[in-house]
Each structure stands twice: as C-alpha cells, then as structure tokens.
Design goal:
The chain has helices at 6-12, 14-34, 40-49, 56-63, 67-79, 100-120, 126-143, and strands at residues 83-87, 94-98. It is mainly alpha-helical. A two-stranded antiparallel ribbon has the order 1-2. α2 (14-34) packs across α6 (100-120) and α3 crosses α5. The radius of gyration is 19 Å and the shape is elongated. The N and C termini lie far apart (49 Å).
Length: 153
C-alpha cells in the first residue's frame, strides 16, 4: 500500500480545504466591496452600526475585531463619508453612526454580495447549500462568539 504524500494529506484535510475556500470567499467579497471603497471589515462594522447604537468598544466586541483594527476601520469609514463618530451618553465614549451615504452603500453592496454569493455557491445543489449553512452556523457558534445569533450571545 502506498503512503500518502504531504501534498495529498494537506489538500484532502477538511480544515485546509475550509481555509482555502475561505481565502477564495474573502477574495470574492473584497473584490465586490472594492467598487464601494470598502473592505470586508469596513462592511462588517458598518452593518452592525446600522442596526443600533454602538460604541467603538461595543463594535469591537460584537464584530470580533480588536480595538486597534476597529480604530483604523472607523477612520476609513469617516474618510469615505460612510460613518461618523458622535458623542455617546457618556462623554468618554463615541458611538459610530452610519451616514446616509453609508446606509445607501450598505443597501447596494448587500445586493451585489447576494449575486457574488450565488455565483460562489453555484457548485452546490440547494440541499448542499442548506447543509453548508447548517455546518457553518455550528462551526461559528463553536469557534467565534461574534458570529452567534443575537439571542445566543
């Protein structure tokens, strides 16, 4: 019996396949968002900020981004006119508020991302897509608290 090569081992390992598919998905999302002057992290923060009142610290917690990255993301969103920092109830905190431009951009970008998602997942049957969504939800819940549905956090 022939031994498996290192290349066969790594290319057949589900964790590595997930890693590589994740790279391809990120690239597709980033390419789609680029036309709006956004990166994936910007889009994530803007999406959360559009759903309520969040301080920078709150956004770091719910998005899973560290504080330094969060500052850079919010700086970019401000430079592009998609969000602003406003004083919170506490003078020491700032809340991140999407601008009308940011909200319009979210709507347009979500429509584009829906198409990107359809193209990316075209290799899967409807049953395969549902199975993948179920598996990813379980993995997110197990490994990334920021991905848990709101009622589970």
């Amino acid at each position: 019996m022939r031994e498996t090569t290192a290349v066969e081992q790594i290319t057949q390992a589900p964790i590595f396949m997930l890693f590589r598919v994740g790279d391809a998905a990120r690239d597709a999302v980033e390419q789609s968002l680029d036309r709006y002057g956004l990166r994936g992290k910007d889009f994530r923060v803007l999406s959360y900020a559009s759903t309520g009142v969040f301080s920078q610290q709150d956004l770091s917690r719910v998005t899973g981004l560290d504080r330094t990255t969060m500052v850079a993301v919010i700086d970019r969103l401000e430079r592009t006119g998609m969000a602003s920092r406003e004083r919170g109830d506490d003078r020491r905190t700032h809340v991140v508020v999407p601008t009308p431009k940011g909200l319009r951009t979210l709507t347009e970008a979500f429509a584009d991302l829906e198409q990107v998602q359809e193209e990316f997942l075209a290799a899967l049957s409807p049953t395969g897509k549902r199975a993948m969504e179920t598996a990813l939800t379980r993995l997110f819940t197990a490994h990334d608290p920021s991905c848990r549905p709101p009622d589970e956090t």
